[in-house]
Amino acid sequence: MTHIIKRSIAIFSMVIFGSVLLYNCEPDPDSLGEQLFLDGAATGNEKSFDLIAYNISNNDSIRSDASQLLNTVGLTTSTAVLGAVKDNQFGKQKVSYYTQVRLPSYNPDFGTNAAVDSVVLVVKPYYEGDSLTTNTYDDGFQFGGENAKKIVSSYPAKKYGRAKAPKLTIKVNEVDEFLNGFSDTAYSNKEYATGQEIGSADFTGNVSAVTITKDSDGSSLFTSAAGYRIPLSSSFFKTKIIDKKGQSELSDMSNFIRYFKGIKLSVVEDDAYLVQFDPNALEMIMYYKYDKIENGVNTRPQATYSFSLAAGNAHIGNYKYDRAGLMGFPIVTGDTNVGDSKLFLQGMGGPSIGIKIPDGTINDLKKMYQKDKSAIVSAKIKMYIDGSWTNKYAKPSSFTIIQKDKDSGKDVSSFTTDLLTLVGSNNFSLFKEYNTDTNQTYYEFTVTKSIKDLVEGGADNTNKLLKIDIGSFLTSTSGALGGYQYTSRAFAVERAVFIGSGDVSNPNKIQLKVLYGTK
User: Fold this and answer.
1) Mean pLDDT of 36-59
2) Which InterPro entries does the UniProt record give (predicted)?
3) Is the pLDDT of residue 457 over 90?
4) Among 115, 242, 330, 484, which has the minimal tally of Cβ within 10 Å of its Cβ?
5) Confidence of residue 20 (pLDDT cuts 50, 70, 90)
6) CA proximity to 44, closest of 362, 375, 427
7) In the chain, how long is the greatest CA-to-CA distance?
8) 349: closest CA among 35, 63, 21?
């Protein structure tokens, strides 16, 4: 979704709104300079200038711990990823997920002669809420000895990749290596040792919600939110949990997370699709029976025990890449003097795009400003998707752009000047997308204020490097941006190939488009 910023903000408190915009017209002037066009006061002209755009290698690694997936700084998005995709531009990407498990309370009492009936892990992928299939079961159906009706509501999960792939075979393994603490740093290329497989199931692409009501009065007997249930080993939990009743392993949190170190979710397939899910919404439920004497009869009632898999646990995404045999894929950071012919952009630790505004471009703009009194009305970085990117993946719809000091020798990053100063202006957007339903898709990134400062002398007229990534800036529940470093890049599944600056003869190479007004 294209994120459009619509409210004025202070530097440390900004509001960003999102909506889908599909433009097929000429760029709009930013309100920063639109007064030049009022009442025929000026003539608008557009001119293109060269840029240097290059690939930035991130070593296929990114922070993917709870601070990134659960956004514990109070931001709104909580997302993890599972699955696998493969294409001839980016190679193979296989995504697994680790989480710790905790007890809701310690020294639990499961009763006498407790035995496990079943255990399920419930994963809740994000799904298409407007595509619903309903099945009703009421002919002789019973629940808990009551005549009842069961309604199953199914929705297709949101997928990225081969949306029509038949399945993902999801495996659940016990983790054999301590995952450290909830607030500890973890990176996506780190694999943790795992032990026995404790469950598996075929995910065929749908999630289901279940409602069971009593026939006699319509009262609710059971409800479950839309999700996917994976059966786990009853014998494993009998040995691992029930049989440890009263022992030190279940006595406190510190002992327990070192005894039962966690679970890993992974997939068997190498080329299917990626699904995103809410790690805070994971459920692991154990159903068991125990002795209970009532009126001299052992009734053996069924009980449930829900483990804690949400906040407080370590949550880690593991992203494995196989780039072998790819032609032209950037293994290291690309040409920062001329730029690369193709630009590769991928979330989840994949490559970024770096952009330098050449000093010659700035000097040409300064001459126009000083000699011809040409005032910049709008400045955009225009970037086309490369013709080689012809698969059926969804076109990218979320980006971030930040600025970095060029000559300080330090990695000092921040929001762009435009994001900090123009967000309250009419017609302002961080980026816009055009022609997304054609093979001439392109994007325009607003850099008006940044360029004006360089040319006309603003508060900060230092030439900055720019960096573009897949993902979006994250906001809090109040709408305030958390900071330039808080983005969805750690779990953003999109990718694309763009036309760079190295192919100098290509009319669609990445360029700076400046709209200026003259008296």
Assistant:
1) 76
2) DUF4270
3) no
4) 115
5) very low
6) 375
7) 103
8) 63
Report the mean per-residue pLDDT for the chain.
Answer: 87
Assigned token pair, 326: 């790819």
pTM beyond 0.85: the answer is: yes
Residue 301 DSSP label: -
Asked if residue 444 has pLDDT above 70, the reply is: yes
Burial (0-12, 13-18, 19+ Cβ within 10 Å), 129: exposed
User: Quick check: 381 and 512 in contact, CB under 8 A?
Assistant: yes
Comparing CA positions, the residue from 419, 421, 416, 418 lying closest to residue 402 is 416
Residues 110 and 359: their CA atoms lie apart, in Å, by: 72
pLDDT bucket at 62, cuts 50 / 70 / 90: very high
* pLDDT tens per residue, range 161-185: 987 888 999 999 999 999 999 999 9
Helices (H), 215-347: 234-240, 253-259
Distance CA 368, CA 46 (A): 12
Q: Are strands 431-434 and 22-23 parallel, antiparallel or unpaired?
A: parallel
Question: How many C-beta atoms lie closer than 10 Å to residue 100's C-beta?
Answer: 25
Is residue 84 within 8 Å of 272, Cβ to Cβ? yes
Q: Which one is predicted more confidently, 18 or 83?
A: 83
Amino acid identity at 93: Q
Residue 460 has a pLDDT of 59
CB proximity list for 511: less than 8 A, separation 6 or greater? 48, 49, 50, 51, 381, 382
Asked if 499 and 506 touch (Cβ cutoff 8 Å), the reply is yes
Report the phi/psi class of residue 516: left, alpha or beta, with left for phi > 0 and alpha for psi in -120 to 50: beta
Cα distance between residue 378 and residue 257, in whole Å: 56
90: which residues sit within 8 A by CB, 6+ positions away? 323, 326, 329, 344, 346, 350, 495
Task: List the alpha helices (DSSP H) in 379-465.
Answer: 417-421, 448-456
pLDDT reported for residue 73: 60
190's CB contacts (< 8 A; 6+ apart) are 316, 318
Contact 55, 353 (CB under 8 A): yes
49: nearest Cα among 449, 360, 448: 360
Tell me phi and psi for residue 63, to 5 degrees.
-65, 130
Q: What residue has token string 């999700």?
A: 227
Q: Would the pLDDT of 283 be above 90?
A: yes
| Confidence bin at 458 (pLDDT 50/70/90) | low
The length of the chain is 519
Residues whose CB falls within 8 Å of the CB of residue 413, separated by 6 or more in sequence, listed in order: 402, 403, 404, 467, 484, 485
CA gap 161, 393 in Å, rounded: 6
**What is the rounded distance in angstroms from the CA atom of residue 154 to the CA atom of residue 131?**
8
Gyration radius (Cα) of the chain, Å: 27
| Domain boundaries along the sequence of the chain | 3-7+47-60+328-518, 93-321
Strand partners, 229: 122
Quick one: pLDDT at residue 406?
60
Beta bridge partners of 208: 154, 227
